[in-house]
Amino acid sequence: MEEIFYLTKEGLERLKKEYQELKRIKKEKLKGEFPKILHSEDLNPEYIAFKEDFGFLESRINELEHVLNNYKLITPPPKGKRDRVQIGATVTLEEEDGSINEFTIVGTLEANPAEGKISYLSPVGKALLGKKLGEKVVITSPIKVVYKVKKIKYKLA
Amino acid sequence: MKEIIDFLIETNKLKEIARRGLVVWRVKNPITIAEHTFRFLFSSWLFSIEKKFSIKKVIKMALFHDLCEVYAGDLTPLFYYKRKSKRMMRWFRLSQKEREKRAKEKYELERESLLKLIKNLKPSLKNEILCYWTNFTKLLSKEAKFLKQVDRIETLLESLEYIGTDEEITGKGWWEGTEEIVEDPLLLEFLKVLQKKFYRTAPQYKKNKKLENLLDFLLEIGKLRRMPRLYWLANGIKKPETVAEHIFSVTLTTWILGREKKNLNMEKMLKMALCHELSAVYTGDTIPYIRKLPKDKRKRKEILKKWPRLPEKEKKKRFQKEYQEEKKALLKLTKKLDPFLRKEIVGLWEDYRKVKSPEALFLIQINTLAVLLQALLYQQKYKGYVADPLWEWAFEKCTDPIALNFLEALKERFY
Q1: What CATH number is given to the structural domain containing B349?
Q2: I need a surface site. Which of A123, B192, B301, B360 has the fewest CB within 10 A?
Q3: How many domains are there within chain B?
């Protein structure tokens, strides 16, 4: 089965930009030039990361090519279905004691739980997918966490 | 070489910084960042085999992933925990915006700390560390994404080992954090294995012997954390480095000095560094040629004053005995691993112990240098301890120009 990568519009743009930039770095490296970083290093730490290690650079370029040939853009669901959690939704959850938690469900490539972006394939992501506004969500493993879906928001183009 | 020694001295501080999550839970004698890195190195390596990643890259990424904590400290997500009651803490609940803000703050603090640590290294070393660290931290490659999940599982495993499974007093936070991040099918399966092992039950659990054995192996090598090095204890050093911490130092030193050895296989050396003391899981830590030290302090001091002087025949005899004991321990430790992996680990260890390859010849010198550097740091810290016998040992072992340069630089740095 072909692997599909779910990407947000911003994510897709970022990956396309990264792909172009890395190809440029590779070209300069192959010419024996020390690649110049177009942007400030503070803004683009990812490019520094590929400056040194050619192997990483190569494999990242191949990876990006694969992704750009096999992606599916995340689009908001039709109006009548926006009360359900799908990939791309930012979900606000409420616990019994009133505390609020928030996640955005994304594809594997954009997942970064530290920033609240969780993959639809993670146990939390899986538990949230398909849930309706007001519905109870139980995340169980050895532990049990119970939330209620308080808000579902989609970024509209 | 001076910059490299300064860098190694600074990274040695990771042997003194306890894992914050365990400190918060008031775990007695918690493991350190160096010890966490030790087992994370192993889990990264072993899980990555199935993913067909470059093991050299994976080991380097794992090796550097927490170097930023030398100055930043262990900024775990616990930073954001709220104490709900006296007994219970939980995973943080935050808005998306707040999560992004805090992640950025953490990244900046850690990056600043890492840049401070590597600032005097030559550009190629500095860039390599920064490259791998940024890659891991910013999740820039499939290897980084995978290792980030392995790192979280490692943290969960530590909590289960040191705190336990009682949901009311622990557990919850670690599981919640793990279930937000883990998405790889192999690792999701491993979570079930972990659950089965610690909770005796796991819904929809299908027996997975291979992963169960892997978990047992990781738990066994975990014993090297908090296992103090015998030589330091015998010399009266209080709370000395542990076997796991020593392995961390040797692996880092191998990378930094081995980079210049273009004719040697770096992946093999890094793996060998990781495996060189594994037998201690069952033999306990040992001192070369000395299996038993007298209980009498004065006699013990007398023996340790000099590096053992023995006739060649006696050295061979004692080595052979140690070798047999260690091999037996290693075979026991790796018994349930996949045969190819077992063969590789035992083979690397044998190569090292019998110095069969150029990589092993270089590594025994690296090991000596790492021990000597640690001794010199103790000599500075503890009155009454002198590192002299280890100089004798180093002069016996070191022949490579890089190792000899390192010894010269140590002399300048410490005398």
Answers
A1: 1.10.3210.10
A2: B301
A3: 2
Q: Do residues A38 and A98 share a domain?
A: no
* Closest listed residue to residue A155, CA positions, set A108, A89, A86: A89
Q: Do residue B37 and residue B140 come from a single domain?
A: yes
Nearest to A49 among B106, B140, B179 (CB): B140
B166 in the same domain as B308 = no
Residue A53 near residue B133, CB atoms below 8 Å: no
B102, pLDDT greater than 80 = yes
Judge if B202 and B318 occupy the same domain.
Answer: no
Cβ neighbour number for residue B380 with a 10 Å cutoff: 12
> Chain A residues with CB inside 8 Å of B141's CB?
56, 59-60, 63
Give pLDDT tens digits for B106-146.
898 999 999 999 999 998 888 889 888 988 998 888 899 99
Each residue's pLDDT tens digit, B45-86? 999 999 988 899 999 999 999 999 999 887 765 444 455 554
C-alpha distance from B203 to closest chain A C-alpha (Å) = 8
HEC string for B65-94: CCCCHHHHCCCCHHHHCEECCCCCEECCCC
Domain containing A21 equals 5-73
To which residue do tokens 């030039």 refer?
A: A33
Residues of B in contact with A116 (CB under 8 A): 94-96, 99-100
Domain count of chain A? 2
Percent of chain A with pLDDT over 90: 41
The domain in which residue B181 lies consists of 1-226
* In a shared domain, residues A63 and A95: no
Residue A36: what pLDDT?
Answer: 54
For B145, the token pair is 């994404």
Q: Coil, helix or strand for B350? A: helix
Tokens of A26: 């590779």
pLDDT computed for residue B170 by the predictor: 56
Tokens of A145: 């966490």
pTM here is 0.87
Of B226, B247, B282, the residue that ends a domain is B226
